[in-house]
């Protein structure tokens, strides 16, 4: 039962914008933003890093002092998003121009309106 059959299990999974997705350059919608998208604090070193074994991959949870946590802001976002963790998939989850790659990384952020992820 792969992604093409998920709709048979639950009608909520029948949408056009389901994951995984194929990123296709000539079908990409360009959206002009009045504010640039900013990613700040990447040069800050975490004071600790927890690593979780997830079977075929690992998740990395850096610990930062509150004022040093990397953040994503601007662009379409009304609030800042704070960096939580990153993990990878061996064998890409998504495709680019129909092609799968050996690995894919996900960088996870959460809305700063909330205390934690």
From TrEMBL:
One of its GO terms (molecular function) is carbonate dehydratase activity. Residues 1-117 form the Alpha-carbonic anhydrase domain. SUPFAM superfamilies: Carbonic anhydrase. It comes from the Eukaryota. InterPro entries: CA_dom (IPR001148), CA_dom_sf (IPR036398), Carbonic_anhydrase_a-class (IPR023561). GO terms for cellular component: cytoplasm. Belongs to the alpha-carbonic anhydrase family. This is Carbonic anhydrase 1. It comes from Culex pipiens.
């Amino acid at each position: 039962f792969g992604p093409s059959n998920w709709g048979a299990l639950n009608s909520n999974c029948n949408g056009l914008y389901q994951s995984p997705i194929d990123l296709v350059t000539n079908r990409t919608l360009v959206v002009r933003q009045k504010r640039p998208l900013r990613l700040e604090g990447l040069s800050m070193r975490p004071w600790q890093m927890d690593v979780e074994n997830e079977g075929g991959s690992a998740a990395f949870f850096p610990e930062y002092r509150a004022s040093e946590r990397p953040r994503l802001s601007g662009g379409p976002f009304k609030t800042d998003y704070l960096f939580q963790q990153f993990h990878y998939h061996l064998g890409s989850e998504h495709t680019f121009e129909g092609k799968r790659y050996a690995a894919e990384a996900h960088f996870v952020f959460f809305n700063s309106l909330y205390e934690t992820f």
